[in-house]
Amino acid sequence: xxKKAQVSIFLIMALAIVILGAxxxxxxxxxxxxGEIVQPETAPIKSFIEGCIEQTSxxxxxxxxxxxGYINFPLDIEANPRSYLQLGPVxxxxxxxxxxxxxxxxxxxxxxxxxxxxYVNNQLKACINNFEAFSTEYEIRELGKANTVAxxxxxxxxxxVNYPVDVLKNENRTRARFEKFSTTIPIRLKKAHNFAKSIMxxxxxxxxxxxxxxxxxALDHDIPxxxxxxxxxxxxxxxxxxxxxxxxxxxxxxxxxxxxxxNYAQNIFVPNPFGEDTYQDSYFQSHYLWQVSDEKFxxxxxxxxxxxxxxxxxxxxxxxxxxxxxxVEKGLDxxxxxxxxxxxxxYDVVYPVKVTIIEANENFKPYSxxxxxxxxxxxxxxxxxxxxxxxxxxVERPSSEEFCNEVANEVTIYTVSNTxxxxxxxTNVNLTLTCGPYACNLGKTEWLSFGAASGxxxxxxxxxxxxxxxxxxxxxDAQMFIQADTPRAYTLNMKPVKEFGNYKVVxxxxxxxxxxxxxxxxxxxSIHIKSASSSFEAFGAYPTESxxxxxxxxxxxxxxxxxxxxxNDNILGxxxxxxxxxxxxxxSASQITFHVMDQGIVSDDESALFIAGLESYSKQxxxxxxx
Length: 627
Hints:
4 domains, elongated, Immunoglobulin-like, 40 strands, 8-stranded mixed beta sheet, alpha+beta, 12 helices
């Protein structure tokens, strides 16, 4: 019995050890996932991938905003020209109508999220470009395809990407595996979409635009409606003139529509012959101020627009060809000299309106979200019946190879080196064209017209909102939106960069910042440089046994610089400040020296406090020095 009791005790102890070990490993794994420690040697790869995720996500959000919630148009919209507003002729972007011909087609939040996810999945590979920028320093293997999950919150867009890669640093054989990446973009797409949806729902409920159109018709003396006039002179109007006048009235007056509860200026100048020249004292304050819902959107502005070049349908009754004529009645006997003209005209009018929701809060990234809908007047009465609602689905599409081979138009692309001082033609720029989920390799630019210019002439697929990208060693990657719907010519500006293979990091003790010293043998530093005005980023790792250059645009720039000093286990110090770079100093420099504040090995709480106050501590030491 005693032996059995001893065995039982040992079994219980072994089981307890296993359970405690499992609990420890579980929480250790959670800790690593929540606060991943990245070695300085491999940190540039992780930052590069996250930078590409941010770039492609921002592209997706930009296209989504331009096209009213769409990136890829459903086939029933693509095949029906009446279902979208094509803005042109210069900037031909398709803006699918959220309401047209009795059909409601407001894209859902879930649909927009899937559009973002699909775009990032399809375009991330092109941005990463097989890690060519790191090919001499690292061996990087892709272990699986990117899988993106996006979420719209009240104040930003979160994009999480599961993308397993194995990274091996050639010089010291440091190895790391990355899988989970995330970026948060301070764009309030969710709120902008909710504001836009409120306007569309209010228009279908209130017929606000139809009523304004009817008012403009009734109040203008150049547009005949119903009247009686005692005259023997012929009363007639040219229909073309009437139509032209209504277009002018819509173009001039609709931009004065304001949404109550949104961000709009009451003191904006408005010509007013009867009082003060401001919006709040004008006719529009009383008649063009619109309450779309009880919810307020104080950080957003809504701009309404109509162009006389957009599709416009108008009919008048009665009508004699291009003339609108009154009916004449003559008096009898003693009143034979008396003439009376009577007229009554009714109009049908259908035209598009574009609404642009604009972020007005400077704490968030500038963003605009545009959508369009049709206004419909039938016999001088609003006509906004809904007969159907579009169902949003992801459709099966042709492969990239099939799409790229279906060429439609010839474009000419010139490539130039663009700095603040000069502009020079350059060749051997590798060009790609992206249209929605498709990426087409166009080839490299060469000398054209016997050396008079550099560029490429190429037949490309039809695309009204394509992204042209250019890559060349010694230059930053460049991109621009182009319209590949008709033969056109474009100039792609490439910014030259200054490359620094020679850079170093020195440290200053927190107790005596005036004294600097070299890093210890077991200490390393990771460097992150980000433009304060653009999406440009650069990375570095010190010490660098072989060349891992830092590349900076050859121009005046302001950067946010962050440097972390570590040993194998701890964050020892760092630097965080803005850095203003002068183009002339950059041109003549051959080395950069980065300074970091060193706190040394301390407790976790002290380290956390130091990192929280890093920006303040960094003011005690020098900014990066160009030598």
